[in-house]
Amino acid sequence: MEKKSEPASKKEKIRKSALLLLSLSKEDAAKVLSKLDDSMIEEIVLEMAQIKTISKKEKKMFF
After folding, report:
1. Where in this chain does the record put each Flagellar motor switch protein FliG N-terminal domain (predicted)?
2. Which of 29-33, 35-39, 46-50, 53-57 has the lowest mean pLDDT?
């Protein structure tokens, strides 16, 4: 069963979190993830797995 559509702001925050974690070293990403609850980790990791392209705007934010 698919979740109902979430507000854009939450989706945007999840994507930004995923992009941030992808920009970190494995060790630093693990430290950040260790501070989050399981449901938040699941949402972010799912987003990380779904990222196929990163926009120019997003690249400027993190890379």
Report:
1. 13-60
2. 53-57
Distance between CA atoms of 4 and 28, rounded to whole angstroms?
A: 32
Beta carbons of 34 and 2 less than 8 angstroms apart? no
* Global confidence as pTM: 0.78
Residue extents of the structural domains in the chain: 8-62
**What is the token pair recorded at 20?**
């941030």
Whether 6 and 39 have beta carbons less than 8 Å apart is answered as no
The pLDDT tens digits for 18-27 are 999 999 999 9
| 17 contact partners, CB below 8 Å, separation of at least 6 | 44, 47
Cα 61 to Cα 20: distance, rounded to the nearest angstrom: 9
Helices vs strands, H then E, count in the chain = 4, 0
